[in-house]
Amino acid sequence: MNLQENISRIQEVMGIVTETRQGLLNYLKRQLPNFPDYVIKDWVYKYNKDGSAEGIQDWIDSQLKDMEWELQKDFPISMDIFTNNTKKQLEIRIGGEVRQDVDKDTERHETQKELLQSKGISEEPIILFKTKDGKYELGEGWHRTTQTFIQFPDGFIQPNVYIGLNAKWLD
Questions:
Q1: Are the C-beta atoms of 129 and 167 separated by less than 8 Å?
Q2: Which among 9, 80, 141, 157 is placed 20 to 30 Å from 115, CA to CA?
Q3: 51 versus 34: which is more confidently predicted?
Q4: Which of 138, 143, 144, 142 is nearest to 159 (CA)?
């Protein structure tokens, strides 16, 4: 069964009779009522790698159901807030590595660089996950964050940050 058939099956079961993308988003919103819409659209929807109805539900049940979220305004970002994993990935990207597994990686970095230079730090939120030891994993906003660190290596103030708490995969 392919992704489209799985999505159609989910829609039938859930009584969703809308366009496929919106149907899946509506389903995710019902399954994850504590999640901000932005996080569902920009992270959950994009990063569901499995695509099967069972895979989506298993991921929700095993990893996402108990998460809580907070929106932080004017959040100070510096390398020392991040886990070693995120710090290492950021340093590699700041160094110019082109990720083959990221669609249009070079173009996206160039776009973010131009936007940063012309409009300043983006109001669009980045998504972080807080670990038990108080460090953060970067979940979404890699291109914006990388380009901002290139311009402001000592750190910067990010206008909007969604922080996911209780991320089970960080335990």
A1: yes
A2: 80
A3: 34
A4: 144
